[in-house]
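Need Peptidase M16's 3D structure for a figure. Predict it.
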Amino acid sequence: MTHFPRAIRRLALVLPAVLLVPQPLLAQEPATPSPQHVTPAGGTPWIYEGSDVPRDEEWIFGELPNGLRYAVRKNGVPPDQVSVRVRIDAGSLHEEESELGYAHLLEHLLFRESRYLGPAEAIPTWQRLGATFGSDTNAETSPTHTVYKLDLPNVNEAKLAESMKLLSGMVRSPVLSDANVKAEVPIVLAEKRERGGPGERAGNASREVLFSGQRLATRTPIGTEDTLGAATGDSVSAFYKRWYRPENAVIVAAGDMDPLQLAAEIEKWFGDWQGEGPAVPAPDFGDPVAPAGADPENPVGEVGVVVEPDLPRSFTYAVMRPWRPVQDTVAYNEGLLRDALAQALINRRLESRARAGGSYLYAQVSQDDVSRSADMTFVSFAPLTDDWKTALDDIRGVIADALATPPSQEEINRELAEFEIVFKSQVEQRRVLPGPRLADDIVNAVDIREAVAAPETVLTVFNSMRETITPELVLDHTRALFTGDVIRASYVTPATGEASAEAIRAALGEDIAADAEARVAAQAISFDDLPAVGEPGEVVAQAPIGVLDIEQVEFANGVKAILWANDAEPGRVAVKVRFGAGYRAIDPEDAVYANLGYAALIGSGIGELGQEELDVLATGRKFGFDFQTGDGAFSFYAQTREQDLEEQLYLFAAKLAMPGWDPNPVIRAKAAGKLAYESYGANPNGVLQRDLEYLLSDRDARFRTPTPQMFDAATPEGFRETWEPLLKQGPVEVLVFGEFDKAATVDALRRTFGALAPRDAAPATVLERPVAFPEAGETVVRHHRGDANQAAAVIAWPSGAGVENLRESRRLEVLVSLFNNRLMEAMREHAGASYSPVVRSEWPSDVSSGGRIAALAQLRPEDVPVFFAEAERIAQELASAPVSEDEYNRVVEPLRQYVSRASTGNLFWLYQLEGATQDPRRIPMLRFLLADYTQTPPAELQALAQKYFGSRAGWRLAVIPQGQTLATAAQGR
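Structure prediction for Peptidase M16:
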C-alpha cells in the first residue's frame, strides 16, 4: 500500500498490536462477479464527453445499460476506508408547488426504513459497521441534487458488500408509507424551526429578489409547513418515482480497495434497477431577465430592501447572465483562471482600502454559477454605518478603475504567484488527498456539468496559459465579468426608512468615477532585509521522547520544541507555537481586549511591517497565521511546507520579539464586534453563542462577550497595554510535524525561537486563577428576539480538568457518546421535539478547572421541560445500570475507527503532544489512548456516570422568546 506506511508502522509502537487488527463484523459473502460495464481503455468516459481535458487516469468510469453512471478509484487516505456517494439529480428545483420540501423529506425517509433496514434501524446499523451518523453517514439536499454519503471505516469485502446492499435498498426501495411520512415530518419541521429566524427570512427575501421570475426564487430545500404537513405516502412516492431513476443517479466510490471490486459491487446491487414509468425531463429553471425599458448599458432591475432589526447591515448586488451548459475544455478552464485572476486583483484592492479605514467592513467580488439558474458576478459588502451610499460608491469606484484601466504587470505577477503556490501544493499533496474529498469532487463536477481534472493537469493548464496573460487580457475578462443581462440588488438593514428600492436603483445607475488610489503599489520586500530576532541560540538538550521518531529540543533561553519529521503527508508541515498562560493571564477588566486579540493581534503587524507588507512577503509562499487564546496558553498555528518553514518560524518568533501596533486592525475589529453583537439576540443559537461560556464559567468576566459599550471604550492604546506584556510571557513551546529536514529545522529554530530574549514568567496569582462552575438551582432564563416557536435548552454538570486524569477524560467521551445516542432518540425520534440535540464533554488539560459535560438542543418553547426531564432521566439511567453490549459496541466501534483513521495523520499526534514540554506526563498516557476509548467496560462507564451525574442535579439554562416565562413557554404560549 502507498498510504502512510511509516506512520502506521510507528503507530504499532504505541498502541497494543491486537487493537490494530481489523475486527470483521460480517462473514465473507460469495465473490462478486467482475464488472462488465467499465469504460474500456481508449474509450471516452461519460464525464469527459465533449471535453479535451486530459483524463485523470486514477479514476475508473462505467455506465450501466439502465443509465446509471459510476466512478471508482483506489485511495488509501484514510487507510482501510471506502467513501461512497450516491447522487440523485433532483433537488428542490425539481419540486412542483405542492411538493415544496419533498426532495429533502425523501432524504430523511430513505434513512427511516427501506428494503433491508427496518424502522429506525439505519443509524444503529451503520454504527455497528463502525460509521458515525452525522459525519461518516450523512446526506445533503440542494436545489439541484440529493446526495447520500457513507465513509465506511475498517473496510473488507464483506462490509463493502453489506453496505452496498443497504445503500441499494435505501435508494431503490425506501418504505414511503403514510406512517413513515407522519413520523419523519415533525423531525424535518424541527430542522426547519432551528434554521428559522431573521437570517432565514433575510436570505429568503434576498433570494426572491435576486432570482425574480425563476424557480430558485421560491424553492428552498427545507420546504414549507403547509406542503410538508400535507405530505402523504402517495404524494412523496410520486415525487420519488419521477426522479429516483437509474439514469438520474451517479455513484462514486473511492477507497482502500481494488477499484474493480468497488465497480463490481455497484453493478451487482444497482445493475437491475429500473425506473417506474416514462422518464421525465427536468423542469426549466428559467433565466434572469431585465425589466422592460431597462438601460442596456446599465440594466438595473429588481431591488429589495430587507429590514431585520436584529441583523447587521449587508449589501449584495449581482450582474446576472443566463446559465448554460458548457463544453468543459482546456480553453474554457483557461478562461476561468483569467476570470479568477481578475477577481483576485479587485479583491486585494478592496481589502487594502478596508484595512486603511474605509467606509465598509469588508467587500468581495465573486463569480458563481448558481444552481444551474444564473451565471452571476456578486459584489457583497458590509457598510460600517447607515451611510450605505458612500460605501457603495467607494466600492464601485474601485471596480470602475478595474474596468477602465489595465492592472500593472507587477499586480498580475503577484496574483499568479499566489495561484501557483496553490496548484503546486495540490500536486505535492495528491498522494494524501482524502477519499471523501475526492468523491465529493466528482459529485460536484457532475452537479455543475463539468469534467474533473488531476492536480497535475490543473498545474499544466496554468503554466501553459500564464505567459499569455497581459494587462489588456485581464481588462477584457474584468469587463466581461461585469457585463450581463440584468443587475439586481438586496440590502439587509436593521433600520426602517434607511434605504428604499428607488434610492438603491438610482445609486446603481449612477456613473462612478474610477478610483485608482486603491491600487496596491508594488513593493520590494525580502526576508533577507528584515532584522534578526536576536543572536542565534544554543541547543542544550536534544533527545527522543520515546514515541515514534519524535524528538524534543531545548534551547538555552528556555524555549522547547517537539519535532516529528516524517513523509506521511508530502508537502505539508504543521507548526504550532504555544506561549504564555492563555485565559489565566487575562485580567477580567481586560476581557474586551482578549476578544479583540483574535481579530486584531496578527493584523497589527510585526515591527515596522503592517498587514500589507506581510502580504507582500507571503507572495508565492505557503504561510498561515492563526491565533487562539486557550485555557492555559496562547497559540499561533500554520500549515506550511518545507521550503517556507524557516520564514514561517521567523514570522511567529518575530511576532513575539518585535510586535507591531498598527491601530487600524483594532479599529476594524471593534467595528466588526459592534456590528455582530446585536445579531446575537436574534435567535436562541445566537444567545448561546453570546452567553453560554460566560454563564458556565459562573459569570467569569474573562469569558464575557463584549458589549458595544465595551468596544466603544476600548482603544488601540489599551490594546497594546494589554497584549504587549502577554507576548513577552513564557514558557514557549514549538511543535513542528510533517515533511521537513530535521537538522535544518533545528538550525532555523536556533535563529528564530532560540534567539528570543528570556521570557517573563506569568505571575503566580495568574497561574492559580480557577474557572468556577455555577451552582445548580433555579433554571437560568435568557430571552431572544426571534420567532415565537424557537427555544434552546442546556443542562450541564461539572467534570474534571488537567493532565493527571486525562485518561478519565477519554472514558468520558465514551459515556458522552452513549448519552448523545439516547438523547437523540428521545428528542428526535420519539418526541420530534429537536432535530439535532448534542452532548459534549470539555476537559481542559492545560489547567486544573473548568471541565464540564453539557447537553443542549434547539426546540419549541413548550418542549424545554421535556428536554430537561429526558436529559436528567438519561443521566440517572446511565448511573444506575450498565449499558447493553449492543449499545456499548455501537459507540465503541465508531470511536475505534475514528482513532485508527485520525492517528495516521500528523495533526492527531500534534494535538496529543502539545503541552508535553511543560507536563511530560502526556507522553506515557499515549500508550493507553485506544484502550481508553475502546476497552472501558460498561461497569466502569456506569461508575463514571455515578461520579458526575449521580451526586448532583444539572445546571440548567433556557433560552425562550421575549415576553414568555418558563411557565407560559411550557404551556405553549
